[in-house]
Amino acid sequence: MNRETWLNLLAQKMAPRFDEMGFPLPKFRVSVGFGAAGQRSATAAEVWHSSVSEDGTFEILIMPDQVDADLVACHLAHELTHTAVGFDQGHKGNFAKVALALGMNRPMTATTPGPAFKEWVAPFLAELGAMPHAKLRFDRGMSKPAPRKPKAGEDGERSQDDQADQEQRPAVPRRAGESTRPPKQTTRLKKAECSQCGYTVRVTQRWLEVGPPHCPQHGAMDVDVDLPDEAGE
């Protein structure tokens, strides 16, 4: 058995649960490989839409540095959820409903396996045995850029008008329907939104590296930005 066979067999074992929830899985394939951003991707997995496949198949890619069995299973279930509910749901609506029912932890943009999820997949992992894969070590290019020195006459801080201008600039989208890779953003302030009530805040990359902001009522919020994805997007 190779790693692709292992991943596809695991996905097949997960499929009945999606049927039970009313979201049957479409035709898909699972492979180990780099996504749209290559080795510099900030995500752990990615799925490409069937509309860009010559045989109409969703293509799920698990990054080759992912080796923990529970995490790999969670990444896979995360991307399968995208295929089941539709890309139009993003990480909200039916996506959040299914992901939470499967036992994944928030935030929805970077789900991790909760106790219920681990219990669900444990028999599958025991039957399949260890994933026949060795971690590929590579540089994701996530190091912080050096801070820009202020020009003459600048005090090193942006004015409120500059900050507002940055905040209102739209994200640079990928072509619609291609993959679940988050669109590249040009803003310094990143948008975070509660998937339950819509509570919204904006936060800088510096604090996102500490952790996602929290809604006062519902906890960890979803962030629309390329961050290390412990479960894909």
Index terms:
single chain, 15% strand, three-stranded mixed β-sheet, 233 residues, Zincin-like, 6 helices, 30% helix, three-stranded antiparallel β-sheet, 2 domains, alpha+beta
Task: List low-pLDDT spans.
Answer: 143-148, 153-176, 225-233
Termini gap: 27 Å
- Name the shape in a single word: globular
Can you write the helix and strand succession as a string? HEEEHHEEHHEEHEEE
Strand content: 5-15%
Classify the fold: give the CATH topology of the largest domain.
Answer: Zincin-like
Walkthrough of the structure:
The protein is α+β, with helices and mostly antiparallel strands and 233 residues long. The chain folds into two domains: 126 residues, Zincin-like (2-Layer Sandwich); 46 residues, no CATH class. The strands form four sheets. The chain has a three-stranded mixed sheet with strand order 1-3-2. A hairpin with a 6-residue loop joins β6 and β7. α2 runs antiparallel to α3. The longest helix has 18 residues. It is globular, with a radius of gyration of 19 Å. The two termini are 27 Å apart.
Briefly, what is this?
With 233 residues, the protein is an alpha+beta fold. It has helices spanning 3-20, 69-85, 93-101, 115-128, 160-168, 205-208, and strands at 28-32, 45-48, 58-62, 104-105, 112-113, 189-193, 200-204, 214-215, 219-220, 222-223. It contains 6 helices and 10 strands.
Q: Which secondary structure elements does this structure contain, and how are they paired or packed?
A:
Elements: H1 3-20, E1 28-32, E2 45-48, E3 58-62, H2 69-85, H3 93-101, E4 104-105, E5 112-113, H4 115-128, H5 160-168, E6 189-193, E7 200-204, H6 205-208, E8 214-215, E9 219-220, E10 222-223
Parallel strand pairs: 1-3
Antiparallel strand pairs: 2-3, 4-5, 6-7, 6-10, 8-9
